[in-house]
Amino acid sequence: MVSVAVKNLSYEVNGVHILNDISFTHSSGLLMIIGPNGAGKTTLLRALAGLVKFRGSVELDGVRPEEYRRYISYVPAQPSLDLMARGLDVALAMNYRPPDGLWRERFLEVLGRFGLGGLANRPVISMSSGEQRLLLLAAALSRDPRLLILDEPTAFLDVTNRTKVIELLQELAGDGVSVVVATHDIEYTAVADNVAVLKSGRLVSFGPPREALSEELLSDVYGISIRRVDRNTPSYMPELLLKRFSK
Ligand SMILES: Nc1ncnc2c1ncn2[C@@H]1O[C@H](COP(=O)(O)OP(=O)(O)OP(=O)(O)O)[C@@H](O)[C@H]1O
Asked: Which ranges does the record mark as transmembrane (predicted)?
C-alpha cells in the first residue's frame, strides 16, 4: 500500500491561488476527491503525479512523486489521443518503460472484463467516448501501478460500466493498490475509504465518508440543497431528485 502524504500544498499561477495549503494523509485504499467545477481536483491529481511544481510537499511512500513515477499510472480527464492509434498502441505508449513483459495480458484482461477485447485492434477514432475511457483504464492498469490516479474515470460511462469500474477500483484497493480518483459522482463516495472535499482550492473536509460528509457540508460546497439518500448510507444526491417522491 502506498501512503499519500500531502503537507501544506499550495499552487498558484500569476498570483491566483489554485490550491491553498492542503494537508492530508491517505494511508491506503480508495480516495475520492470531489468538489465543484474549478475547485482544484485536476490540479491536485497532477501534483500527486509529480506533474506540476508546487509549494509544500507530497510524499508517496516517503519519496517525492518524481522519484515514484515508475509506479504511478495517471489518466487525465481529457487526454489527447492519436485517433489513428489502435487500442494496443495506446497501452504500449503507456508502457514505454514496462516493469515487466505482462502488460499486454493485463491490458487484455481488463478490456475483457468489460467485453471490449476487440478494442485492442481498433483505431481510437472508431471507439465511442465511453469505450475510450475504458481503454485508458485498461492501459493504465497494464502498467501494474502501485498508485493509480484517475481523473473522471466514470465520465461517459453507462450505469453498468460505472458500477463495474467502481467495483474494479475497490478490488484493486483491496489488493494493495492505492487509488486516487477525482469525480463528480458524489453518490459513489459511499464506497471510498477516504473522501477529500475541495472548494475554491481549499480542502474543506477529509476522511472516511461517514465522517467527512454531511448534508450541510455538501450543500454549502455545491451551493444547492444536497440530501443523504438514507440514514444508513453515506451517499448523497441533489434534493431536487429526492423530494418529488418523498411526500
Ligand atoms: N494555468 C492556469 N492559469 C489560470 N488558471 C488556471 C490554470 N490552471 C488551472 N487554473 C484554474 O484553476 C482552477 C482549478 O482547476 P482544476 O482543473 O484543477 O479544477 P477541477 O476541480 O478539476 O475542475 P473540473 O471539475 O471543472 O474539471 C480553475 O478555475 C482553473 O481555471
From this structure: none
The alpha carbon of 18 and the centre of ligand 1 are apart by a number of angstroms equal to 7
Is 41 near ligand 1, meaning CB less than 6 Å away?
A: yes
Ligand 1 pocket, residue 196 CB under 6 Å: no
Cα-to-centroid distance, 25 and ligand 1 (Å): 23
Cβ atoms of residues 42 and 19 within 8 Å: no
d(CA 155, CA 183): 8
Q: Is the CB of 15 under 6 A from ligand 1?
A: no
Asked which of 28-32, 180-184, 243-247 is least confident by mean pLDDT, the reply is 243-247
- CB contact at 8 A, 164 and 9: no
* Confidence grade of residue 99 (pLDDT, cut at 50, 70, 90): low
Q: At what angle do helices 87-94 and 103-113 cross, to 10 degrees?
A: 130
Radius of gyration of the chain (CA): 18
Q: What is the pLDDT of residue 216?
A: 97
Q: Locate the ligand 1 atom nearest the alpha carbon of residue 184 and give its number.
A: 25
219 Cα to the center of ligand 1, angstroms: 21
Domains of the chain: residue spans and CATH: 4-243 (3.40.50.300)
Nearest to 2 by CA among 77, 67, 56, 75: 67
Nearest to 154 by CA among 204, 189, 116: 189
State pTM to two decimals: 0.95
Supply φ then ψ for residue 57, to 5 degrees: -140, 150
